[in-house]
């Protein structure tokens, strides 16, 4: 049985692209040359690696097995390549960062420009997702998470703590007046999380029950804190939001400041094997400096 390096490289490209044509474009080879190499690899392994459909290619069970291993090897090679490059002065290479849609849109992306200016050789990509990507499978290099990770092989660094306060837009307050105490919320439009939302803390819909025996009816339920933030900005109603949102928006007014909602922490998280990565170190230090400045 022979699995030579070139064939595995081609297999990796085809499995990612799910197409001979697209893999060929990426590797600068003709689709027929790619197809020949894959057939030769399948022959040497004596098993089909792809189901061939009119709409493209799908990995067989054996193909999935091989792809998992090959992907791991290529990830390690990319790391080694990056580490060798990083041993030179300026950090260089790809850095994939993931965080939540709200934190990424409102806090992180407006602060990216200075980092890219300082480190032009780092190829930064940011993936915003409210589902945690698997760092140990290298779906991303770094995550900014709103709770400490449960996986033992991840390094975590506390970044900042966040507190929920109650906010409304000036337009809304002009129209509906300022609530003087929690009981006044009965006469206001309250925006809260939807039932299927998975916020980082419990009881985030405390505005529905505070100061009343009968839970209030919200004007709107949303399963995203970013959506709640935009609805409050538009003047629709009052909601509990993390304090960083108000600092970033510049147009929200804190109401009922004596009310303190839940709090949670943000963590900078990355796999143990990337502990020595200069790209991760400079990115972490840059974020911590910006937080201190804020």
How are the SSEs ordered, and which strands pair?
Blueprint: H1 5-17, H2 20-27, H3 31-45, E1 50-53, E2 56-59, H4 61-86, E3 93-99, H5 101-108, H6 112-118, E4 122-128, E5 142-145, E6 154-168, H7 170-176, E7 191-193, E8 220-222, H8 225-233, E9 239-242, H9 243-249, E10 253-254, E11 263-271, H10 278-293
Parallel strand pairs: 3-4, 3-5, 7-8
Antiparallel strand pairs: 1-2, 5-11, 6-9, 6-10, 6-11
How does this structure look, described?
With 294 residues, the chain is an alpha/beta fold. The chain contains ten helices and eleven strands. It folds into three domains: 5-84, Winged helix-like DNA-binding domain superfamily/Winged helix DNA-binding domain (Arc Repressor Mutant, subunit A), CATH 1.10.10.10; 90-159 and 265-293, Periplasmic binding protein-like II (D-Maltodextrin-Binding Protein, domain 2, 3-Layer(aba) Sandwich); 161-263, 3-Layer(aba) Sandwich (D-Maltodextrin-Binding Protein, domain 2), CATH 3.40.190. The protein has helices spanning 5-17, 20-27, 31-45, 61-86, 101-108, 112-118, 170-176, 225-233, 243-249, 278-293, and strands spanning 50-53, 56-59, 93-99, 122-128, 142-145, 154-168, 191-193, 220-222, 239-242, 253-254, 263-271. The strands form three sheets. Strands 3, 4, 5, 6, 9, 10 and 11 form a seven-stranded mixed β-sheet that branches. It has a two-stranded antiparallel sheet with strand order 1-2. It has a two-stranded parallel ribbon with strand order 7-8. Strand 1 and strand 2 form a beta hairpin. The mean pLDDT is 88.
